[in-house]
């Protein structure tokens, strides 16, 4: 037996790990795959339809749970039981925090809903690691359609050998989990029988349907478990038993180090152990099997708080076994709240003093949020706890019942329950093939560092083949001139980084017809189409709470009538009125000049910086280059309310009485991959294109729900002459939800 102390700091690793070894490869992967987490503080766990759902968002990095000002946009959704979004929003993040609200529709049926939040960067790592929390919505005016059905007693039983596999002749700890059809754990007990019917082990659940027992599988023997839940007996087979392989056993002596023992059917050979806490390498070591066994001693002081992973590799760096270990946080932030009075009368103003301090009684600054809601018979579900979420739930898959329990104390029972939870979690949150690959994998979703990003795809008409190298332009008709462009990549993807875009808008995306007029542009849905496979407990209305439902409904109506001004407390920040090209060389407010009925006369009479020419194909603009004292030979970039107009003949046909302002840039202007021979920008009075023909727009607003199907994620087509979307399902223009702050782009061409 070989014992090694895994004590490392920084990037210095134990013996047997070279620069191109496991630890260095994993550290390189961790730096590229920076873990990001969101926590959503909801104001309460239960709402009535028609009420406002308030929330605050905290963004942290996944290793030390420190504020991470990486992403500037968070995506927040409310999903029904079919995982269909009933509300969606983009929320601005500043200095790793953001806030927002949803006005829950009065037509929402009663039920259990899931609130989830994520960033564009988090979409690279799967929906299981998005923030998720369940809330209850009650609608007293609409039948929920839920009824107390007969219990089908559909229980799910799972077994998890420690390390991953059962191997003949090697002793293993086997964890088990028994859950109801809602995903919640149930109390159970059972016994393990061999193929002869003899009892080889007995077991029972400890907490939340989980427990463990020890088994040494014998060659040629199959095992069956009989689990008793109430009066029902469930028969379930154990996982496959392998003839050869590795098993691992982690032992915690309490105050001393951890001991990890590896047993194998191979009598000799090198094995590598990599320990990482929250994707940071804590230790790495090489061991040698002696008589089929190797042991590692792990200093718990080298592990970070929260969840650590111990992964065993063979000499070819192939992962063999993995084990999770949970360590309670050593440093905790204490928050105290003290009201200014011990007792209040009706309509008294309440002031609350908050104080924060660490365990050593040192006061510290903190970013906090506080929710105040009524505690009654309807509000029994505990709210999500940021402490247990960041240190535990966010690193695990599936439903974790009462995660706050594992932080209550350091008793042996709590430690055993936490260990059972770790044993039932399987492998890590990423694929080792990606982490140890010679070259780092590319991530399709990049973080939105400076504002939210609108993505699109350019394809060939008829074939849907991606188009590479096409320059697309995105603009939003407005009196504030905004324009951005991008060149499509190999997959035909373009992305536009947008700032000051915090209200419902129309966007216009187009390609210069001189490149190609037949390409198709599709705006992609920014919300994640992937959903975690978590189960939610169905809402069953209870008649004994009828008076409570009635009282809450009355309170909701009173608040809606007398507190309307508090529904939206967020003021839209002032936008920078400067055009994207800065200060123009020439500016004309047309009302200060003689008004002509033809735009050609306007341009010829008092815009000396632009020369109008008529050729075989119609009108052309030639801007004077004041820098080089010459005239450009090509048309400038012509804008109308910030939207590029490539057909100058159509621009010249516009009524000049609708134009308020004209600006000219008398020099070359570089933007992205484009070079403009000057800029001529027209602005109308309303900033809405004034009915300019042949402009195809996408409506950038909140989610539109189809009246026929109830779907809120289907793409729809916007008509240039309409302000509502025609749903492809029902063919009619639907009314949508209330526009949301930084609302979602959900319509495509």
β-strand number = 44
Q: What overall form do the CA principal axes indicate?
A: globular
Count of helix runs: 7
Based on helices, strands and strand pairing, what is the structural class? mainly beta
Distance between the termini: 67 Å
Query: How is the main sheet built?
Result: 5 strands, mixed
User: What's the pLDDT, averaged over the residues?
Assistant: 83
- Classify the helix fraction into a percent range: under 10%
Spans of at least 5 consecutive residues whose pLDDT stays below 50 are 1-20, 697-749
Rg over CA atoms = 32 Å
Strand % is 35-45%
Strand order of the largest sheet: 3-9-8-5-6
Walk me through the structure.
The longest helix is centred in the last third of the chain and has 17 residues, at 546-562. It contains seven helices and 44 strands. 35% of the residues are buried. The chain is 8% helix and 36% strand. It is mostly beta strands and 749 residues long.
Notable characteristics:
five-stranded mixed β-sheet; 7 helices; disordered C terminus; mainly beta; disordered N terminus; 749 residues; 44 strands
SSE inventory with pairings:
Layout: E1 5-6, H1 22-32, E2 36-42, E3 46-48, E4 52-61, E5 73-79, E6 85-92, E7 97-103, E8 111-118, E9 131-138, E10 156-161, E11 166-167, E12 172-179, E13 189-194, E14 199-204, E15 210-215, E16 223-229, E17 232-237, E18 241-242, E19 246-252, E20 258-264, E21 268-277, E22 280-290, E23 293-298, E24 306-313, E25 319-327, E26 334-339, E27 352-357, H2 386-391, H3 412-423, H4 432-435, E28 453-459, E29 471-475, E30 483-487, E31 493-497, E32 505-511, E33 520-523, H5 546-562, E34 586-589, H6 599-606, E35 610-615, E36 618-625, E37 630-631, E38 637-640, E39 643-644, H7 648-652, E40 659-671, E41 674-684, E42 698-700, E43 717-718, E44 725-726
Parallel strand pairs: 1-23, 3-9, 11-18, 38-41
Antiparallel strand pairs: 2-4, 4-7, 5-6, 5-8, 8-9, 10-12, 12-15, 13-14, 13-16, 16-17, 19-20, 20-23, 21-22, 21-24, 24-25, 26-27, 28-31, 28-33, 29-30, 29-32, 32-42, 34-40, 35-36, 36-37, 38-39, 40-41, 43-44
């Amino acid at each position: 037996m070989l014992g090694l102390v895994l004590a490392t700091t920084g990037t210095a690793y134990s013996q047997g790990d070279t620069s191109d070894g496991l630890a260095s490869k994993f550290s390189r992967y961790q730096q590229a795959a920076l873990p990001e987490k969101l926590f959503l503080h909801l104001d309460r766990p239960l709402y009535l339809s028609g009420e406002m759902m308030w929330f605050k968002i905290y963004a942290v990095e996944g290793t030390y749970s420190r504020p991470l000002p990486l992403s500037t946009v968070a995506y927040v959704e409310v999903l029904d039981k079919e995982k269909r979004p009933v509300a969606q929003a983009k929320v601005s993040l500043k200095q790793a925090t953001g806030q927002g609200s949803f006005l829950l529709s009065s037509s929402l049926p009663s039920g259990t809903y899931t609130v989830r939040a994520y960033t564009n960067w988090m979409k690279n790592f799967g929906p299981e690691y998005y923030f998720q929390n369940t809330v209850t919505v009650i609608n007293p005016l609409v039948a929920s359609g839920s009824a107390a059905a007969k219990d089908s007693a559909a229980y799910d039983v799972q077994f998890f050998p420690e390390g991953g596999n059962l191997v003949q002749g090697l002793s293993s700890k086997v964890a088990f989990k028994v859950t109801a059809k809602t995903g919640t754990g149930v109390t159970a007990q059972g016994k393990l029988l061999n193929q002869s019917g003899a009892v080889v082990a007995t077991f029972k659940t400890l907490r939340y349907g989980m427990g463990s027992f020890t088994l040494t599988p014998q060659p040629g023997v199959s095992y069956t478990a009989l689990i008793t839940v109430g009066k029902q007996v469930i028969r379930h087979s154990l996982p496959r038993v392998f003839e050869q392989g590795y098993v691992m056993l982690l032992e915690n002596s309490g105050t001393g180090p951890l001991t990890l023992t590896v047993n194998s059917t191979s009598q000799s050979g090198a094995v590598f152990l990599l320990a990482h806490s929250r994707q940071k390498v804590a230790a790495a070591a090489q061991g040698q099997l002696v008589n089929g066994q190797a042991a590692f001693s792990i200093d718990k002081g080298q592990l970070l708080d929260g969840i650590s992973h111990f992964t065993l590799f063979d000499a070819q760096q192939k992962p063999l076994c993995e084990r999770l270990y949970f360590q309670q946080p050593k440093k905790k932030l204490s928050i105290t709240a003290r009201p200014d009075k011990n007792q209040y009368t009706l309509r008294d103003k309440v002031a609350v003093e908050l104080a924060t301090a660490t365990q050593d009684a040192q006061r510290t600054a903190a970013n906090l949020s506080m929710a105040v809601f009524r505690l009654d018979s309807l509000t029994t579900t505990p709210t999500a706890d940021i402490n247990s979420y960041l240190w535990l739930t966010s690193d695990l898959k599936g439903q974790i019942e009462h995660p706050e329990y594992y932080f209550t104390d350091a008793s042996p029972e709590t430690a055993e329950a936490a260990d059972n939870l770790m044993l039932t979690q399987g492998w890590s949150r990423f694929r080792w093939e990606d982490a140890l690959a010679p070259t780092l994998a590319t991530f399709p979703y990049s973080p939105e560092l400076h504002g939210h990003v609108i993505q699109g795809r350019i394809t060939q008409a008829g074939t849907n083949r991606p188009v590479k190298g096409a320059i697309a332009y995105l603009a939003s008709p407005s009196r504030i001139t905004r324009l951005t462009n991008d060149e499509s990549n190999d997959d035909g993807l373009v992305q536009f980084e947008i700032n000051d875009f915090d209200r419902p808008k129309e966007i216009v995306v187009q390609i210069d017809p001189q490149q190609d007029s037949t390409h198709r542009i599709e705006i992609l849905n920014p919300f994640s189409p992937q959903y975690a496979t978590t189960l939610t407990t169905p809402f069953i209305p209870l008649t004994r709470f009828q008076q409570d439902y009635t009282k809450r409904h009355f309170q909701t109506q009173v608040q809606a009538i007398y507190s309307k001004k508090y529904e939206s407390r967020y003021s839209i920040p002032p936008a920078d009125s400067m055009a994207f090209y800065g200060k123009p060389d020439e500016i004309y407010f047309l009302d200060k000049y003689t008004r002509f009925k033809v735009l050609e006369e306007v341009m010829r009479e008092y815009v000396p910086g632009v020369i109008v020419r008529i050729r075989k194909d119609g009108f052309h603009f030639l801007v004077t280059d004041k820098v080089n004292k010459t005239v450009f030979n090509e048309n400038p970039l012509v804008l109308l309310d910030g939207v590029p107009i490539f057909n100058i003949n159509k621009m010249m046909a516009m009524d000049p009485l609708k134009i308020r302002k004209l600006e000219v840039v008398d020099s070359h202007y570089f933007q992205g991959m484009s070079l403009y021979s000057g800029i001529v920008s027209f602005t109308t009075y309303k900033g809405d294109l004034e009915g300019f023909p042949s402009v195809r727009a996408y409506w950038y607003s909140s989610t539109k729900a189809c009246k026929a199907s109830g779907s809120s994620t289907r793409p729809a087509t916007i008509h240039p002459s309409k302000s509502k979307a025609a749903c492809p399902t029902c063919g009619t223009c639907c009314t949508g939800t209330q526009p949301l702050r930084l609302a979602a782009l959900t319509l495509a061409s």
